[in-house]
């Protein structure tokens, strides 16, 4: 799978972040089963609990368009290190990844990124499959 477009979209989304409090910009791009890429940035709020992460913004956009399966997700935060999803985002991602092998691309810049699987990022995830039975 070529991640170039996904990486570019995540980097573009990072620049749209609304972060007046933390100054920590995050961008995400999610490839869904419809082969469209949905993007998101983090959006802060004076009431910190009302803040939304980039990953969830992108995922919710894709879900609201009728998608249910994440094929890959790219995330960029601090461009000096790889930014991984927070715990809440990992749980939301777990709801929609097809399986533990779904690629999670952690980005510093267009040329510097690593690819992990969802299983590596969140081993032993509690998923909807745990509720079946």
What would your notes on this structure say?
The chain is of the alpha+beta class and 133 residues long. The chain contains 4 helices and 5 strands, in the order H-E-E-H-E-H-E-E-H. The protein has one domain (4-124): Cytidine Deaminase, domain 2, CATH 3.40.140.10. Strands 2-1-3-4-5 form a 5-stranded mixed β-sheet.
Write the layout of secondary structure elements.
Elements (H helix, E strand, L loop, with lengths): L3 H11 L12 E6 L4 E5 L12 H11 L5 E7 L10 H10 L6 E5 L5 E5 H4 L12
Parallel strand pairs: 3-4
Antiparallel strand pairs: 1-2, 1-3, 4-5
Biggest sheet features: 5 strands, mixed
Question: Shape, please?
Answer: globular
Secondary structural class: alpha+beta
| Separation, N- and C-terminal Cα atoms | 34 Å
CATH superfamily placement: Cytidine Deaminase, domain 2
Percent strand equals 15-25%
Count of beta strands: 5
- Indicate the percent of residues in helices: 25-40%
Count of individual helical segments: 4
What is the element string, with H for helices and E for strands? Answer: HEEHEHEEH
Enzyme class: hydrolase
EC number: 3.5.4.5
Keywords: Hydrolase, Metal-binding, Zinc
Protein name: Cytidine deaminase
